[in-house]
Amino acid sequence: MSSLAPRRNSCRGAVCGSRASSEWHVRRRGSSCSYFPSGSQTEDFSVSLSQPMFTVTLRFLLAIDLWLSKRLGVCACEESPWGGIRPLVRLVELSGHVVPWLVGALYTLLRGETVAEQEIMLNLALALLLDLLLVRVVKTLVRRRRPAQNRSDILSTFFVERYSFPSGHATRAAMCARFLLAQLVDTGSMRVLVVGWAALVSLSRLLLARHYVTDVGFGLVMGYCQYSLVERLWLTWDCFQDIMLMRLRERLNRAYGGLWMADWRH
Known about the structure:
Elements: H1 4-29, H2 53-72, H3 86-95, H4 98-111, H5 115-142, H6 156-159, H7 168-183, H8 188-207, H9 213-232, H10 237-265
């Protein structure tokens, strides 16, 4: 009889332990600020000795990328460790969105007082459109899923894209920073502000858990290289006027030819 009591106690302890662990897993799954989206499968980083060295190294680097990105996502939601500064970080995120940059470039282009200013704003608008095209192509080819984001964001459904690699904010920040440094900024203090803004915009993508570290890093490199392409494809104001006049002349000729054919038939 004395030997049965410890067995019963051990069984009760095992059952209680299993219940506690299951409750802990349920609570963790039910958290409103999880890093991975609900219903999605996490990436498998298991390593086997039979795999090639390249595959082992790639899985190891992806595991580090995932771990570091998760540690940096301190503003993913209001319940995060730094959730109090989330509105400020989102304001920095908004400053790197393509809409205010494109609207500002077109407005300055239309209201420009000098030909040089209009030429710079014209190429900035074209550079922004080129950035959108290249980022969309790369995202469509890679198709990397985003980390989980705050579902309580009202505008996130409309302005957050589906794929993650590369970060469009990072490419835009790097390209615009290099563009401004080369064309408009000529003082040391303004250069520091421009570079600091690009760094903060890129960092906001990690703090809000919008992207992985590799997404932001590749985006910065891609945006930096995009400006070299913009310089090669630089469009002068005279060339732009010639192109517009040529297009207008072609449309007028088509319209006049259509009217002439209609009169001839009648």
